[in-house]
């Protein structure tokens, strides 16, 4: 993974001191709240219902054990002993004191971490495939480019006061595990016929009030033009994005209102003017950054195959975990482990300080000291020898981190919702907990198979409900919570926005509604290999509407 | 009270006046015209040394043909978080090659001044009390290490091509 | 007129607070000063403005409460959650909001 050089260290230190000065001035009353607010947001400090919230960046979701231990330390020393991993591969703390945030940032800086631009109307954390560098189907590791973009976008003087937040995601495999088509810019790293590396560029995807799938603006952008092209897109956005209405200020609205043809023309014209400027990436720099992301030296561990088979036979719980939570690695003796942060009935994405420390220990011992955060709020150990899976599983189980539910119905994505968030209209976590408990039986989960439920507590869609196979959107109706259900969303390479199927459900009826949907699916699927999403795409919403609302009341 | 600041210090006797309905440039003063007014005047005259005000939603490339006759471009920041003028500045200094004075007017606050300087703005009409005080004390909250080239010239700190280091004011 | 209390978050640590009868900010909603008529509400608003300008609190709001059997209960769900904290067991050593109080 990337290691800071002197420049990086000095920059982050200077940034912390700059923020410390701003906090001091704010607490002394020299800086008014309306001026301070964008400054604190650009350092990831929100004000929520109960307290401040600090969002710490985990660049493209990659961290090592030393960093994870620091996250645990911050949770213990400055917060209430836990943290929440987010749908943008970051971590959030819910109870920091503003007065202590500069100290938190100083401690984070000591392990090459920061909270720069995790909020505010600027370029946010560049996210990437959580299996990057390890996945068997990967064409090339997208993370070096994510790192280049991360650096280039840090305290960019032209792009610090955009109309709204700006999110970029990168993937390097034909299978899109980074949901690039619902980002402001999506980059699909691939090779052309000559084997040269470049990107398909997508623009204007996003969720929220107006969910839209991104449009492809370039089929192949050579890697050397990455910064020039992104500059062109963001400059056009900065100049022409709407600033009159917060809910119409993202680039997706600009694309929608301008038309992709005209917008492409504007971007290409801007790009033409700057493509040969100092933003052109020298090959030497790209290759130099790539070396940070080289695969660790993975020794041959062929004994793992037999060990795995033996262990599976001996322990059904291990067998189910190994088949569910371990994905194929590019090296045959290794696997990619998903550490589920979705215990049955628990809070999706939360981890205690003790659990973070445990993960750090396991990563250091068995996983080449590398950990990832997925946008589905789980942790990943990308490089684990099959021979070590049993030991890893045992260690995880001791820490309550061995739930064998990766991609299953209880692997729910949920935003913090009205339990924490000042923007929310309804709670997400209790809904997730109840659904998880209802479907908690391993047999039931196995029977249902792959099914992504995503829950958002408001239209901002931080729970990514629009791209859930089953999406739940919490709204407020007459002072009470209500949940709208969408079906058929997907964040992968066949991205789609879920369709609303009818009137919403009260909190006490939501879990039953989900069960009705699941039972309907089980009743009409061709066979157990037809997933929920595939079945939905085949039959459409009708059978589900009828099951939920009855024959007469199909229309919402 | 509004004072004009450059990196060399506060200016006394700044002659520039943003012309409005109520206020026109008088004796010894120089007018800053709105973009449309300027474009109307410039084609009919042989004068040089104009001052032009660019509002956030305006197209700065309209100045391209007559930029050599412009001595000062004022960029409006009606709200400190309206970031369009940062792009105006970048385009003026970069693509359009403007070498005259580039001035930030409007809601100019101390925390944005370092970013404004990097996009090539070199003078500032400052009203905010805290900003005035900090500028008097020469305490700008700047980070001198940059992760990207910008309109203002800066030094190469070595290492990756996109990095820069601030150079002191000339 | 509905009964009103003044709420905000403390500047330094962000903790949700309510203005009590002595003009102090308390972490317990039940100790909040209740405005029962227009003048009292106006006084609350003034106190809120002053506290904001004095950099003691941020995000100041007058909110509606119902008083029943001596218990103050905010009319909005959001404010009931603010009063008692998250409604789930979120951390060791911290409870969760009483469901009966939270319920609509």
Summarize the structure.
Chain A is α+β, with helices and mostly antiparallel strands and 556 residues long.
Key terms for this structure?
heterotrimer; A: 556 residues; alpha+beta; Sulfite Reductase Hemoprotein, domain 2; 18 helices; 20 strands; 16% strand; C: 104 residues; globular
The overall pLDDT average of chain C reads: 95
End-to-end Cα distance of chain C, whole Å, is: 21 Å
Give the CATH superfamily of the largest domain in chain A: Sulfite Reductase Hemoprotein, domain 1
What about the largest sheet of chain A?
A: 5 strands, antiparallel
Largest inter-chain contact set: A-B, 45 and 36 residues
Mean pLDDT of chain A: 97
Question: What class do helices, strands and sheet pairing of chain C give?
Answer: alpha+beta
Fraction in helix of chain C: 25-40%
Give the low-pLDDT segments of chain C: none
Helix content of chain A: 25-40%
Explain what you see.
The complex is a heterotrimer of chains A (556), B (170) and C (104). Chain A is α+β, with helices and mostly antiparallel strands and 556 residues long. Chain A is built from 18 helices and 20 strands. In chain A, the strands form four sheets. A five-stranded antiparallel sheet of chain A has the order 1-2-5-4-13. In chain A, strands 3-14-15-12-11 form a five-stranded antiparallel sheet. A five-stranded mixed sheet of chain A has the order 6-7-8-9-10. In chain A, helix 1 (6-27) packs antiparallel against helix 2 (33-41) and helix 6 packs across helix 8 (260-274). The relative contact order of chain A is 0.09. With 170 residues, chain B is an alpha/beta fold. In chain B, strand 1 (3-6) and strand 2 (9-11) form a beta hairpin. The longest helix of chain B has 10 residues, at 84-93. In chain B, the strands form two sheets. An eight-stranded mixed sheet of chain B has the order 2-1-8-7-6-5-4-3. In chain B, strands 9-10 form a two-stranded antiparallel ribbon. Chain B is globular and about 50 Å long. Chain B has one domain: Rossmann fold, CATH 3.40.50. Chain C has three helices and five strands. Chain C has one domain (3-78). Chain C is α+β, with helices and mostly antiparallel strands and 104 residues long. Chain C starts with a strand and ends with a helix. Chain C has helices at residues 38-53, 77-84, 99-102, and strands spanning 3-10, 16-19, 25-26, 57-68, 71-74. Chain C is globular.
């Amino acid at each position: 993974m990337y290691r800071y050089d002197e420049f990086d260290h000095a920059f982050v230190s200077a940034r912390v001191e700059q923020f410390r000065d701003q906090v001091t001035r704010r607490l002394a009353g020299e800086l008014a709240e309306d001026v301070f607010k964008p400054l604190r947001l650009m350092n990831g400090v929100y004000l929520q219902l109960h307290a401040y919230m600090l969002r710490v960046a985990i660049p493209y979701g990659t961290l090592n054990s030393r960093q994870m231990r620091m996250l645990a330390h911050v949770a213990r020393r400055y917060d209430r002993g836990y943290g929440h991993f987010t749908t943008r591969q970051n971590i959030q703390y819910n109870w920091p004191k503003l007065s202590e945030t500069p100290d938190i940032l100083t401690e984070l800086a000591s392990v090459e971490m920061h909270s720069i631009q995790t909020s505010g109307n600027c370029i946010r954390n560049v996210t990437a495939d959580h299996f990057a560098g390890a996945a068997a189907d990967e064409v090339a590791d997208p993370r070096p480019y994510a790192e280049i973009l991360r650096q280039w976008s840090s305290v960019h003087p032209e792009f610090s006061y955009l109309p709204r937040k700006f999110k970029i995601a990168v993937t390097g495999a034909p299978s899109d595990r980074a949901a690039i088509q619902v980002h402001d810019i999506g980059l699909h790293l691939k090779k052309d016929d000559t084997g040269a590396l470049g990107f398909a560029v997508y623009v204007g995807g996003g969720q929220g009030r107006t969910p839209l799938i991104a449009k492809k603006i370039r089929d192949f952008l050579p890697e050397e033009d990455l910064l020039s092209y992104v500059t062109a897109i963001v400059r056009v956005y900065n100049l022409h994005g709407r600033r009159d209405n917060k809910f119409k200020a993202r680039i997706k609205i600009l694309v929608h209102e301008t038309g992709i043809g005209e917008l492409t023309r504007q971007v290409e014209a801007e790009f033409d003017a700057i493509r040969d400027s100092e933003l052109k990436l020298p090959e030497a720099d790209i290759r130099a950054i790539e070396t940070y992301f080289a695969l660790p030296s993975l020794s041959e561990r062929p004994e793992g195959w037999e060990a795995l088979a033996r262990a599976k036979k001996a322990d059904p719980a291990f067998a189910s975990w190994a088949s569910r939570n371990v994905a194929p690695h590019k090296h045959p003796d290794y696997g990619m482990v998903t550490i589920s942060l979705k215990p049955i009935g628990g809070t999706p994405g939360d981890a205690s300080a003790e659990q973070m420390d445990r993960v750090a220990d396991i990563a250091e011992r068995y996983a080449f000291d590398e950990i990832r955060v997925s946008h589905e709020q789980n942790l990943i150990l990308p490089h684990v020898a099959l021979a070590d899976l049993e030991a890893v599983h045992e260690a995880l189980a001791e820490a309550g981190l061995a739930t064998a539910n990766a991609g299953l119905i209880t692997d729910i994505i949920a935003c913090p919702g009205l339990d924490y968030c000042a923007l929310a209209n309804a709670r997400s976590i209790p809904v997730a907990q109840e659904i998880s408990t209802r479907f908690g039986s391993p047999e039931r989960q196995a029977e249902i198979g792959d099914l992504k439920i995503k829950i958002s507590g408001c239209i901002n869609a931080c729970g990514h409900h629009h791209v859930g196979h089953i999406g739940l959107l919490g709204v407020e109706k007459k002072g009470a919570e209500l949940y709208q259900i969408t079906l058929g969303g997907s964040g992968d390479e066949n991205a789609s926005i879920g369709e609303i199927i009818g009137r919403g459900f009260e909190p006490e009826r939501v879990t039953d509604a989900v069960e009705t949907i699941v039972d309907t699916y089980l009743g009409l699927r061709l066979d157990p290999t037809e997933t929920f999403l595939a079945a939905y795409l085949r039959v459409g919403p009708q059978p589900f509407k009828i099951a939920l609302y009855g024959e007469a009341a199909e229309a919402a | 009270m509004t004072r004009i600041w450059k990196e060399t210090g506060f200016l006394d006797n700044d002659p520039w006046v943003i012309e409005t309905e109520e206020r026109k440039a008088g004796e010894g003063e120089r007018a800053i015209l709105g973009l449309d007014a300027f474009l109307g005047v410039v084609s009919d005259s042989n004068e040089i040394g104009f001052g032009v005000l660019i509002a956030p939603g305006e197209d700065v490339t309209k100045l391209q043909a007559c930029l050599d006759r412009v001595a000062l471009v004022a960029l409006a920041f009606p709200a400190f978080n309206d970031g369009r003028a940062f792009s105006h500045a970048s385009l003026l200094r970069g693509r359009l090659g403007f070498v005259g004075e580039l001035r930030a007017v409007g809601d100019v606050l101390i925390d944005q001044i370092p970013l404004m300087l990097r996009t090539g703005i070199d003078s500032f009409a400052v009203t905010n009390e805290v900003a005035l005080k900090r500028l008097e004390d020469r305490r700008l909250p700047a980070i001198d290490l940059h992760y990207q080239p910008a309109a203002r010239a800066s030094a190469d700190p070595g290492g990756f091509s996109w990095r820069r280091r601030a150079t002191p004011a000339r | 007129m509905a009964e009103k209390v003044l709420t905000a978050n403390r500047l330094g640590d962000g903790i949700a607070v309510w203005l009590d009868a002595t003009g102090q900010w308390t972490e317990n909603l039940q100790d909040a000063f209740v405005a029962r008529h227009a003048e009292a509400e106006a006084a609350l608003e003034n106190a809120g403005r002053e506290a904001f300008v004095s950099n003691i609190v941020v995000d100041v709001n007058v909110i509606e409460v119902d008083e029943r059997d001596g218990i103050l209960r905010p009319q909005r769900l959001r404010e009931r959650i603010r009063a008692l904290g998250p409604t789930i067991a979120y951390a060791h050593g911290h409870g969760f909001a009483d469901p009966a109080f939270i319920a609509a």
